[in-house]
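G., the chain you wanted modeled:
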Amino acid sequence: MGRREKPLEPTAGPVQRFAYDLRKLRAEAGSPTYRALAERTAYSAPTLSAAASGDRLPSLPVLLAYVVACGGDRAVWEARWRETIAAEPAPDGGGSPYPGLARFGPDDRDRFHGRDDLVAELLALTGRRRLTAVVGASGSGKSSLLRAGLIPVLREGRGAPAAGPRVAAIRVLTPGERPARTHGARFEPGDEDGEGGGEAGDTFLVVDQFEEVFSLCHDRDERERFIGRVLAARDPGSRLRVVIAVRADFYGRLAEHGPLAEALRDATLLVGPLLPHQLREAIVRPAAAERLVVERALTARIVADTGDEPGGLPLMAHALREVWRRRSGKALTLAAYEAIGGVQGAVAHTAEEVFGHFTEAEAARARALLLRMVAPGDGTQDTRRTVERTELGSDCDAVLERLVAARLLTVDGTRVDLAHEALISAWPRLRRWVETDRERLRLHRALTEAALSWRDLDRDPGALYRGTRLSTAREAFTDTTELTALEGEFLTASVAAHHHGVHAKARAARRSRVLLSALAVLVCLAAVASALAWQQNRVSDRRAAEAQARRIASIAQTLRVSDPRTAMRLGVAAWRIADLPETREAVRTAGAQREVAAVAGVEAGDAVNSPSRLSEDGRVLTVVDRDEVTWWDARGGRRLGTDTSPGVFRRFAALSPDGRFVALRTQGGFVVRDVRAGRTVTPLLSTPDLMDEDGEFAAGGRLFVNRSRELRSQGPWSRDPRRRDSRRRELHGRDRGRMVVQVWDVRRHKRLARIAGDIPSGNPFPLLSPDGRRLLTCARDGRHLTLRPLAGGRARHVPWPRAVQRLACAAESWSVTPDGRALSFTAEGGVRTWELDSARERPRLDVPDVDEYEVDYSEDGSLAVTSGTGELALWRTASPGTPLMRYALAEPVYGVARLDRADGVIRYQTDGAVVRAIDVRDVLAGSGSVVRPLTRAEFSPDGRTLAVTRRDRARQDVELRDARDGRLRARLPGRACPDCPAPLLRFSPTGNTLVSAASVTERSGDPLGTRVLRWNVGARRELADQLVPSLVDSLAVPGDGAPALTSGSPAEVRDNEAGLFDVWEVGTRTPSRALRGHAGLLWSRISPDGRLVLASSGKLTDVTTGRSTRVLRGEGALTDALFSPDGRYLAVVDAHARLTLWNARGTRRLGALTAKSQDSAAGDAMPLAFSSDGRLIAMGREDGGVRVWETDTPRLTGAEYPATDGPVLALGFAGDVLRVATPRTPVREVPLAAAQATAAACRRADGGLTRAQWRTYLPNLPFRRTC
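Predicted structure as tokens:
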């Protein structure tokens, strides 16, 4: 159900004014819904809605579709669109005639100018010689000459032997660090045209950036093998012709290889700078092709600035692209060129503009990222270095995205690269970084190469660093955070091997001495050495398997949303291969993740913009194309069938609830097809005096409701059935009249009712009751609702307040509840539901304030699913104060999200006919367990009892529940306090004693202190009741017989500038300690044994001595803290929801547990819990989700358990289970054991990796069954 569009200010700019007029056009057309507009076009409702949002100018095809659907003039609106384009500053997009720092590609031939003579010369040279070299300075245009000059000409000349050698195939590669191993297969000749007969042609192999053979490949044997493959092209029988492009400063390296120098003696083409007239062509002709004008002064200035600049072409192209972005209408101006700093300053201007928006942490990541992409020259210029995406940590994603958006970096699949080497010299900041760290960069590149060789040799110990290289590397890389996982493992293994070698030498010396005295000892030592060698091989194999397990665990994390089933299978496989912290995290997340399926309703190569709809049960997806209707199994992704009915132009109108019947709009009316049987059920639902607009199925698909407009004749048009356009000509000759609603019996092709008159043309669409007996419509003035019986009888107004009727008429659409007695619609405050025959409103669904959302009910109406921008939620309709589950959406939902209770999933459709499913079985199993929400909760350490508080009118009662299933055991009476917050709760270590602390205020509202109550849990008996004159914010119960301790600031102190707080032993009348000197005190936390108190000021106080110490140095503002039960750890949370682990005394930081930004809102104090052994720590979230870390591996992001109703009130570990308490679900159990998570993931993923998937993701390991 859609909400009203946000208001627009037409004076805010050209785009806003354009969107304002588009909305006005839609209003003049009767305000049809975007869903109705989508059914008239080939675009989805969200796409059409975005066209009039005012955020950006729509594309021309989308605009014209919108205008035609609303009855506007195409020519007028196309002219207005072009005027708005000229008035609005252009974004950086694919429409630029200049490539910027990027090279020209084969598809850019029409924009590549100034090199025609050089292209012809190169083509002739490749025809004469089978091996050719193109040599030029960096930035002289070698790559563009090959890709946009030579390759298109070769493609056009295929099959024409008279014009040169016949071209069988064209392949392009860059060598990289392992050229022979990576590209060996590409040297095999082929005929990719697939032409049969005739003489076999030559395969052209273009080797761009050939200098990488020397700058990146440091393995001499690898380099020799690759050059040998290149030289083999000289043999005519090879059917290869090779063209290499090499930077001029590496030309001397070619001479070091005798056969290569001989082969290129008279087969080299030198690329120099463009001449002035060629520069003018390169500047003016691409702009002219886009109907743009370049000021003459600008052309002259760029020619002057670029002519003497060696390798200045990419700098010129980038400057022109920036000028294009700042163009004035259709003119590229000198003023814009000067504003960006000209040819020399444009790259630096762009780079510094991006860099200036980074935070300090992001700037550091950007520096490390860019330096990793530079290979420092050794007597030559510095070169760029392509890196694999796996070399970069996930914390670099945001920085990488912004550098790519600015076109400073390029991404090709999994490879990331500098847009051009000119960036190194043209950006002063990057140049300074390289000069400062040049020697360290060389060491880093050498370390990277050595680590890769070690990996390729199956981690052979013989490939590890030793001696001087190891010492130098250890000194240079003391901080291993900037190394990749492989580099860190290589360095660690080298250090371990070094220590092992030292010990081995000592052992060898001892063996030599022993050898002189006893031959028997020698035999014994030989046996020991053999055992060690065997063990070494086993360790090497184990480490290789561990590396593969870590790799696929990382891949699984990236596939959670796009391919959830494969992600779960990879997580299971990772843990089966090696039981590691990373794999345990992956399999725990796999066993609990909400995403379980992503099914595409199209096959490879099919169109993805065709209208599509999910059936009411969410199990069938129907896709309608001009030629056919296809339906898919939304559970397994199988194509269930196709229905083809040629000869008519059709548009999708409606789908029956079971997905069997489809209503299609044709030129003559509506046609209803039974797509399962492949036949037309109802050939035509129309009358000659009506123009059909939209329709919907009703009564379970038995009936069809269509809304039409009467036509009044304006002239003597006649209808000729032989003319295909007669219907259209007749419509053009008639006026628009009243709106008419018709109800049809689909199977009998019988009209049951025709209603004309006071019916609006816009939204909402008239609604038929589920039994098909009554029709609900809105008056044209939007002031009241009318119920009309179809079998006869008087129509009557719905007995709702007038204000509510106006809200219902203003809604985008309606839906009826499953019982047929109430109507749901969107209004301010959420989803409103009113009963039709009474004036009673049912409970509202307080959905977030988003632009659009839809609602779907379960069959019995007890549950509802809402889907909107950014969120999907599940509600209990009887008590919808908070949702039972929230799920963050990565992309908009198309249509209605469907709840399938039998399968325990919610399915929803995204653009492109993709159906995604999320698992809600855990939510359905626990839904409705508590009607009156909980306000506080605490699990006992023994895992048997859950203590909760709930407000009952003017008191907060304490309840004891079973921690396993949440069943109520007993109620402990609270104290009357209408405005008091929920009391604090704390158990003793055995769980037999419970203490609560609730604040108490005077009648004036001033704080009086805290009432502390102590109970015997087993006997349900109150042991103590004391008013402590302190605002208690922390409790500790060291033992059942020991007095409880509280800490907090004194109640009588109004402005606690001195930082006072008291520690009380409950049962005494004076504080055990009165402490001061904690400026800025907000809270305090007391350790389980009652000996230590941590204040938010960052001071730790020993209660027995009263001595305070400044701890947690380096931490910012803190919001919460927790001591572990065993007294080893202290966990603190800062204002940015970052969780840090310290020793219990706060003197040594053990690690920062990395949490995602959405885990908790900044400043919120969310529940924390340690396992009894301190091995695990968990933190709750505001939305009800939980994240669990292993304290030994804080660098990992932790296992994520999905959200339910939130916020999390308490967490408790019980063996291999984590228990979670939320306001409406007292106990939700989360399995922590990897074996349990594996079983759950295998069940939800329908088994483990197939053999084909194993070959794709784990080609180096033998297949094994994982489920």
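The CA atoms of residues 807 and 827 lie 6 Å apart.

Shout if anything looks off.
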